[in-house]
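User: quick one, sequence for these tokens?
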């Protein structure tokens, strides 16, 4: 096992009810980290491997979008078969956090810039060490996915919420310096999260998403902290700090 650091560059949240606890110690679930890693690798694989992208295209064009969870499970299973490196991925079940705080957060609709709701929420901002085994391919997958997600959100916010533009411009410049960039935890209330973003590269599938789901592949909303002037979930897995 190697030593790493989870660096929360912007507020990190675990869920609507806050962070789970063990003996009153808050922790970030390793399962959420794994989920974000697989989502990033799926996006990366669509651009890197034409045969994988073709399999996704054929399956989704014939699939039933009313069973999206089944589709997600199917695709992630195919991803694990393609990337045997995922078998080498070892993450802690719980990453205990030294300190958590509370923030007023806003749920912002990306397409319009409207504030849909706001509430107090538990967050973590800072650095916490953990031990893991992480395959090298995840560095490139994380960067590819996070850059695409950040640029897509920036493209919309230039028109709908200009006050977020400086944050995203700075973020897109800094992502290249992150060892392994990720978007993780509770950063959107969209049940699809960033899953559909991967399909943006497959035009026929993108058109099907718009026709059947009446939506864009981009997440519909993000969580925003006015105090930090940042959206949620942008983290780095670092080797040193």
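Assistant:
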């Amino acid at each position: 096992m190697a030593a790493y650091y989870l660096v929360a560059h912007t507020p990190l949240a675990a869920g609507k009810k806050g962070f789970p606890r063990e003996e009153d110690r808050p922790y970030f679930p390793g399962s959420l980290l794994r989920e974000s890693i697989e989502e990033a690798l799926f996006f990366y694989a669509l651009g890197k491997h034409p045969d994988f992208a073709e399999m996704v295209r054929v399956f989704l064009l014939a699939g039933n979008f009313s069973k999206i969870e089944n589709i997600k499970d199917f695709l992630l299973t195919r991803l694990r078969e393609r990337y045997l490196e995922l078998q080498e991925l070892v993450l802690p079940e719980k990453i205990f956090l030294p300190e958590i705080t509370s923030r007023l957060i806003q749920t912002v609709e990306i397409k319009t810039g409207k504030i849909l709701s706001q509430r107090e929420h538990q967050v973590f901002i800072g650095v916490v060490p953990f031990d893991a085994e992480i395959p090298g391919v995840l560095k490139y997958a994380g960067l590819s996915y996070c850059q695409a997600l950040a640029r897509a959100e920036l493209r919309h916010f230039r028109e709908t919420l200009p006050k977020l533009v400086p944050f995203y411009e700075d973020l897109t410049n800094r992502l290249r310096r992150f060892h392994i960039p990720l978007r993780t935890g509770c950063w959107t209330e969209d049940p699809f999260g960033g899953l559909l973003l991967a399909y943006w590269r497959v035009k026929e599938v993108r058109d099907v998403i718009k026709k059947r789901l009446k939506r864009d592949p981009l997440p519909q909303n993000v969580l925003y902290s006015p105090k930090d002037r940042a959206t949620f979930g942008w983290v780095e897995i670092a080797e040193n700090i």
